[in-house]
UniProtKB/TrEMBL annotation:
Keywords: Oxidoreductase, Peroxisome, Purine metabolism. Its main location: other. GO terms for molecular function: urate oxidase activity. This is Uricase. Catalyzes the oxidation of uric acid to 5-hydroxyisourate, which is further processed to form (S)-allantoin. It is found in: Peroxisome. Pathway: Purine metabolism; urate degradation; (S)-allantoin from urate: step 1/3. It comes from Hypocryptadius cinnamomeus. Gene3D superfamilies: Urate Oxidase. O2 binds at residues 48, 242. The keyword Oxidoreductase applies. It catalyses: urate + O2 + H2O = 5-hydroxyisourate + H2O2. The keyword Isomerase does not apply.
């Protein structure tokens, strides 16, 4: 049991310059005895309102240097404070505020919410067990307008999809990875590096791109690049929910439409997923 969607904004000041972290936290516990379920005995139950207050107090006292460290702080507090807690899991996700810039100069106290991928993390720990930390990106929408195709696939009497050697590749990306033994990591730096790898593997070189023969191959390229460049990542899950675009037939309007006007296919949409890890 636990408390979901604990939302708050944490302000931090360094001189005149201000910093923000707006997050949503879910904190779940498993107790050493199920007596509250079986017997109605609530003597070991930590109220969910107390869980919420603890999260807010930790934000006030410790700040949020990184989402991962804050999730670790939550796990550590419940494990060291309450002997009846057998397991704790903390999920933290960030609202993507970015500092405003005017003529290249960063503003000291103004921000803009940019939906270019949401940073989230999870930390979980069993009593007398290792601390496990995951991090990830969700709601990252990506598109490339060429250098993508889908050919040579299996066909039978139910196949109506034509082969395409030049199509739009568009989708919403979810990825989640696990760290090995958590040492003194710079979680923010690692997250940014992984995001850069995702964008590079998806798009390819800026002057020519990289051909994608399928969504599946693109997912694998993302995972391989991250695992090759970020040694702290042990396992990486990637889900790519696809958005398809159809070229509008304008012959009846007396026009030739050479992939200039397209409409999205709302439903159904495709999806591919893969989990890849080190040996």
């Amino acid at each position: 049991y636990g408390k979901n969607t604990i939302k708050f904004l944490r302000l931090h000041k360094e001189g005149k310059k201000q910093f923000v972290k707006e997050v949503e936290v879910c904190a779940h516990l498993r107790l050493t005895s199920p007596q509250e379920y079986l017997e109605g005995n609530n003597s070991l139950v930590i109220p969910t309102d107390t869980i919420k207050n603890i999260v807010l107090v930790l934000a006030k006292k410790n700040g949020i240097s990184s989402l991962e460290q804050f999730a670790i702080d939550i796990c550590h507090h419940f494990m060291t404070t309450f002997c009846q807690v057998a397991y704790v899991k903390a999920y933290v996700q960030e609202v993507p505020w970015q500092r405003l810039h005017e003529d290249g100069v960063p503003h000291i106290h103004s921000f803009i919410c940019v939906p270019d991928g949401i940073h989230f993390c999870e930390a979980e720990q069993c009593r007398n067990g290792p601390l496990v930390v995951f991090a990830g990106i969700k709601d990252l929408k990506l598109m490339k307008t060429t250098q993508s195709g889908f050919e040579g696939f299996y066909k039978n009497e139910h196949t109506t999809l034509p082969e395409r050697h030049d199509r739009i590749l568009c989708g919403e990306l979810f990825c989640k990875w696990s760290y090995g033994e958590c040492k003194d990591f710079d979680f923010n730096c690692i997250w940014k590096k992984i995001r850069e790898c995702i964008l590079e593997a998806f798009a390819g070189p800026p002057d020519c791109g990289e051909y994608s023969p399928s969504y599946q191959k693109t997912v694998n390229c993302i995972q391989m690049l991250v695992l090759s460049r970020v040694p702290q990542v042990q396992i990486m899950e990637v889900v790519l929910n696809n958005t398809f675009y159809n070229v509008v037939d304008m012959k009846n309007l007396g026009l030739t439409n050479d992939k200039e006007v397209l409409v999205p296919v709302e439903t159904p949409y495709g999806s591919c997923a893969c989990t890849l890890g080190r040996k």
